[in-house]
Amino acid sequence: MNNENLVIYVIVVLCLGAVLVMSKDKMPPRLKRGMALTAVIMIALAFVFIIYSMLA
Prior knowledge:
This protein has helices spanning about 5-20, 30-55. By secondary structure, it is mainly alpha-helical. The protein has a domain at about 30-55. It comes from Paenibacillus borealis.
């Protein structure tokens, strides 16, 4: 696995999570739920990729 791509992915996902947390009052509830679920899945995948890269 390419570590540069992994680092970029982790940074982008964490920024997405931060943006969602900071703008949670401005988003409609229906969109907020979908975006939060997407962000949680992406953050979980980022941590799985980090652990995989450490073990491989």
